[in-house]
Write a structure and sequence with these properties.
Layout (H helix, E strand, L loop, with lengths): L11 H54 L10 H5 L1 H4 L14 E4 L4 E13 L4 E3 L5 E4 L19 E3 L6 E8 L2 E5 L4 E3 L4 E13 L2 E6 L6 E5 L1 E9 L4 E9 L35 E9 L3
Antiparallel strand pairs: 1-2, 2-9, 3-8, 4-7, 5-6, 5-9, 6-7, 9-10, 10-11, 12-13, 13-14
Length: 292
């Protein structure tokens, strides 16, 4: 070291200032990182909630759009299906008085819908009420989907052009023996549809679907807080609103008591249960205009 030179270091004041600046920068970085993580978690939970609602509506859509297809309307529904509704499964079918039924305070949807079979009538038929008719179809009938047991929904089929369901009396290859529930003309090249009854509702954080007379209620989607359904007979429009949650439960309430779209049939807000408000929530709605 040359003579007269002095070693110069940081003073205590400079060190303190540097530490304060670094602590401020570190605090800002931590705050920013925490905000980012919280925002990401919230976005992820909301996305999951929306996805769950969409999954429910997607499951329902094809069935709803085929509700009542080729079946009788109004009071004729009960008359047409009296063998089924008064049979061994009558206790399970009390809420099926029409093709579209909403019960339990708008919380349960019960629909009778027609499932396309891919089989078409080869010839036309003049059908008389209560008189069996042998109908030849384009291919053999899948006997796992239709039987001659009128106590189950597999024992019934319908044709969109006919407007009534048929009771299945027998199946041999591509020929089905049917009992018409109306005197009418069944044209050629009309597709046969399998009759199915569906009951759907949310319970215990899951969305359930029951293929009535065929299978017990099964969970379809998890994370569903509630579901409401509205039916407008005048416009034949069915509306479904699904209240779904994310995965992360917070220790405090993070969702409001009411959410846009979570309303009753008159547009009044529905109260969200307190437990559900510990999650990020999403309301998904869809309307379907039904045929027939």
């Amino acid at each position: 070291m040359e003579k007269g030179s002095k070693a110069k270091g940081f003073t205590l004041v400079e060190l303190l200032i540097t530490m304060v600046i670094l602590s401020i920068i570190a605090g800002a970085i931590i705050t920013l990182g925490s905000t980012y993580v919280l925002h990401f978690e919230q976005a992820d939970d909301l996305s999951m909630a929306r996805q769950r609602g969409i999954m429910v509506l997607t499951y329902l859509e094809n069935r709803v759009l085929h509700a009542g297809l080729g079946m009788p309307e109004s009071t004729d529904f009960a008359n047409n299906f009296q063998d089924l509704l008064n049979g061994t499964h009558s206790a399970e079918l009390t809420d099926f008085t029409h093709a579209v039924n909403i019960t339990s305070g708008d919380r349960v949807l019960a629909i009778a819908y027609a499932l396309p079979s891919g089989l078409y009538t080869v010839d036309s038929h003049d059908c008389e009420y209560g008189v069996d008719v042998d109908v030849e179809l384009s291919s053999n009938v899948d006997t796992t989907k239709v039987t001659n047991d009128g106590n189950k929904t597999e024992g019934w089929v319908t044709f969109p052009a006919f407007g009534r369901a048929f009771l299945v009396k027998g199946v041999v290859g591509a020929t089905v023996t049917l009992e018409p529930k109306l005197e009418a003309f069944l044209p050629a090249n009309d597709e046969m549809h399998y009759v199915r009854f569906l009951r759907a509702y949310a319970q215990g954080g899951k969305f359930y679907a029951e293929d009535v007379t065929r299978q017990a209620a099964q969970p379809v989607v998890e994370g569903i807080v509630d579901a409401v359904f509205y039916w407008d007979e005048g416009t034949r429009t069915l509306t479904a609103a699904i209240l779904a949650r994310g995965n992360t439960r917070k220790g405090v309430l993070i969702a409001p008591e009411n959410l846009p779209g979570w309303e009753d049939a008159d547009g009044n807000p529905l109260t969200i249960p307190e437990e559900a408000r510990h999650y990020h929530l999403s309301v998904t709605r869809r309307e379907w205009r039904l045929r027939n």
